[in-house]
Design goal:
This protein has 424 residues and is an alpha/beta fold. A hairpin with a 6-residue loop joins strand 3 and strand 4. It has six helices and 22 strands. The strands form four sheets. Strands 8-9-10-11-12-13-14-16-21 form a nine-stranded parallel beta sheet, with no helix packed on it. The chain has a seven-stranded antiparallel beta sheet with strand order 4-3-2-1-7-6-5. The protein has a four-stranded mixed beta sheet with strand order 15-22-20-17. The C terminus is likely disordered. The chain folds into two domains: 131 residues, PH-domain like (Roll); 183 residues, Leucine-rich repeat, LRR (right-handed beta-alpha superhelix). The structure holds zinc ion. The site of zinc ion has 7 residues, from loops. One of its GO terms (cellular component) is cytoplasm. It comes from Ridgeia piscesae. This is PIF1/LRR1 pleckstrin homology domain-containing protein.
Length: 424
């Protein structure tokens, strides 16, 4: 049984001599085993710690020698083992959580003096230099020739940049780097994103600029990234639309969408309450969704789009007594019924055509289409003019589900009283 991790050895007696420990944690290999030649399965079991400075290793007897375990953060690869003699605390971090758990259970067996015949113990041999080398946390690959094919990516990476390597899809080995905080795959040939980012639950920055992305899948917009992703750069792709599920990325602070082919922004954008920086230069935006009025930004750049001429407010009243089809579709959205293309057949298009009113309800054919203008200075502290004449007034369209919503919106389009749109 052997794991590699960072270990800090704390001597509990030092404070009583008014002494402070110098230094910090070092990369170490921890193993549990018997000394070579110590009588087969009967010899004493030791925990051995090898570091770069002491590759032969310090040994701690295990049987009845552990005072306490601290395992509250074992899921994050951290734990502490408190020995009685010598009075040392081994503070472990940067370990693989699964390996650490099984390592601790073997240590526990050794401490209790249980039968270890079913456990693979190690030989307590000195560690090699590579085993106690501090692991890399950053990696940059900017050339196809340097792309690791046989060696793999170190699991300790927190920042990975792989640019200009003509990658057509995200390497599944990258999706297992659970320590990653920042992933930069700009300048490749990515066409799609994988659905499952569930292991990258610490990722806060994702740069995917200058690829060939045409769609952001639903799976990407759910899972841990909803809570962790602060920065998303999708500039220079081929996106034509963003699904309503995209707004589930509620932790986003910075969103870059420059140089795509977007005709509109999702109507649930007000759900992303942390957003402070939006840039969508050089798209095909014609109007902004009404929910945009509820954002509170620091910087906004929507120049180089195809905004329609903003005129006086106009409403097209299409409120009718709803058809059975519309009632059924509304119920599906309201109760978040999960459906597939197989279930609903040709109605899929109808279901996806739903427009979200600012009150949160979804409306289909029966609605009021209200076109008005939005002074962008109302939603952001810094704004770039949307055209060459220096205008900061953008057209804004709302779909309102009922007469009362219509009247409410007419009275005050900037009202923060509107419920935040939820996404089904
Ligand atoms: Zn409404």
């Amino acid at each position: 049984m052997r794991i590699c991790c960072d270990v800090d050895v704390v001597n509990r007696l030092l404070p009583s001599f008014n002494m402070k420990k110098k230094g910090k944690s070092s990369r170490a290999q921890l193993s549990v085993g018997r000394k070579p030649g110590a009588g087969g399965n009967t010899g004493e079991v030791f925990l051995m710690m090898c570091t770069k400075l002491d590759r032969n290793g310090a040994k701690y007897q295990l049987r009845n020698n552990i005072e306490q375990y601290f395992t509250k953060f074992v899921q994050q690869g951290k734990a502490t083992i408190r020995f009685q003699e010598p009075p040392h605390d081994l503070v472990i971090c940067q370990a693989d959580p699964i390996q650490l758990k099984s390592f601790l259970s073997v240590v526990r067996l050794g401490h209790q003096g249980n039968d270890l015949s079913k456990v693979t113990l190690s030989s307590l041999a000195p560690a090699s230099a590579k085993q106690v080398e501090r692991q890399r946390t950053k990696m940059v690959v900017t050339n196809r020739k340097d792309y690791p094919i046989t060696t793999g990516f170190p699991i300790s990476l927190t920042s990975l940049r792989v640019s200009d390597c003509t990658l057509k899809r995200i390497d599944s080995r990258m999706l297992r780097l659970y320590n990653l905080r920042s992933l930069d795959l700009s300048g490749n040939h990515l066409k799609t994103l994988p659905d499952d980012f569930s292991r990258l639950d610490r990722l806060s920055e994702l740069r995917l600029a200058n690829n060939h992305l045409e769609d952001i899948p639903v799976g990407f917009c759910s899972g841990p990234l909803c809570q962790t992703l602060n920065l998303l750069d999708l500039s220079g792709n081929r996106l034509k639309m963003l699904r309503s599920e995209f707004c589930q990325l509620e932790a986003l602070v910075t969103l870059k969408l420059d140089s795509n082919e977007l005709c509109c922004l999702p109507h649930g954008i007000n759900r992303m309450t942390q957003l402070r920086f939006i840039s969508a230069v050089g798209n095909k935006l014609q109007t902004l969704p009404a929910s945009f009025t509820q954002l509170r930004l620091e910087n906004l750049d929507l120049s180089g789009n195809e905004f329609i001429q903003a005129g006086p407010s106009s409403a097209i009243d299409r409120l009718r007594f709803p058809s059975l089809l519309e009632c059924a579709a509304k119920a599906i959205h309201k109760h978040r019924v999960v459906y597939t293309e197989e279930d609903v057949g040709h109605l899929l298009r109808y279901l996806r055509s739903g427009k979200r009113c600012l009150c949160g309800n979804v409306c289909f054919t029966s609605h009021v289409h209200y076109l008005t203008t939005l002074d962008l200075r109302q939603v952001t502290s810094e704004v770039t003019a949307i055209d060459q004449r220096g205008s900061v007034i953008a057209p804004c369209e709302a779909f309102l589900c009922s007469r009362s919503c219509f009247e409410k919106y007419q009275r005050n389009p900037y009202s923060s009283l509107w419920k935040k749109s939820s996404v089904t």
